[in-house]
Write a structure and sequence with these properties.
Elements (H helix, E strand, L loop, with lengths): L3 H16 L4 H8 L3 H9 L6 H10 L16 H15 L2 H12 L2 H23 L1
Helix pairs in contact: 1-3, 1-5, 2-3
Length: about 130
């Protein structure tokens, strides 16, 4: 039986792996397991030991806490609903391409692009109110 914590950690693992453009095979090679094990972690079928979680955090260049971000024992259901929505958005190829391109930019153009996106978002909400 799959636990909600295992599902959450698995989703965070998949999200980060995809964001970095790694295949399951590549990540598996970095931590010394087979790609099928990464599949099982990502779908929550297998639990990760603390040492495996630590190895994955190093391979993905995040803190161990990253895997638990967004989890709150009091708001677990709400977090899972929000995670489901975010997961749909972040799993789209276009979103991943945009994020990768954004992080390839230097700091100044990246800041300008963010400011532009925020300005466009404001324009869109202004026109919707009219």
């Amino acid at each position: 039986m799959t636990d909600t914590t295992d599902l959450h950690v698995g989703k965070r693992l998949r999200r980060r792996r995809r964001l970095l453009g790694l295949t399951q095979q590549e990540l598996a090679g970095e931590v010394g397991v087979r790609f099928q094990q990464i599949q099982k972690y990502e779908c929550g079928a297998n639990r990760m030991t603390s040492s495996r979680l630590f190895d994955l955090s190093k391979a993905l260049n995040v803190s161990v806490q990253y895997f638990f971000d967004g989890m709150d024992s009091d708001d677990l259901l709400a977090a899972n609903d929000a995670e489901r929505l975010d997961g749909d958005i972040l799993s789209q190829k276009e979103t991943l391409e945009l994020v990768r391109a954004y992080y390839r930019l230097d700091e100044r153009p990246r800041r300008r692009l963010l400011d532009l996106a925020k300005a466009l978002e404001g324009d869109q909400s202004d026109s919707g109110a009219a």
